[in-house]
């Protein structure tokens, strides 16, 4: 498949360096398998699923390949000198559902500078602190929250 996202027009003045790219987790970097369990069985069902699947990497999402290419570019510069910084900002809880996400990133060899597990809290405030050049998410409410704080955003359908 081909990675795709709808970029919303917005007047912003993003800082020039380093390039900061923020990814959502489920249905963006990762598959939507846990989202589907959440929709069918609620939060407790999703937590139980994640615990049962903890040793198995999450499936690939639509922007995994793009993130991997960014990771390869970062490695060429080295961690400290890289002009690219990548972030994971996910609605997942770090305590209950973050372990598998981190293990998956490590299994893939995908370097992420910082990961934020929002436990369902709005993403806008942390995005305002990161000031990314682009934020990828599958939730239109998260795109709207990002735009409300002046963050360029792309919807991943």
Automatic annotation (TrEMBL):
GO molecular function: 5'-nucleotidase activity; magnesium ion binding; nucleotide binding
GO biological process: adenosine metabolic process; nucleotide metabolic process
Signal peptide: none
InterPro entries (alphabetical): 5-nucleotidase, HAD-like_sf
GO CC annotations, alphabetized: cytosol
Any Pfam family the entry gives: 5-nucleotidase
SUPFAM superfamilies: HAD-like
Protein name per its UniProtKB record: 5NT1A nucleotidase
Organism listed in the record: Pomatorhinus ruficollis (streak-breasted scimitar babbler)
Gene name as annotated: Nt5c1a_0
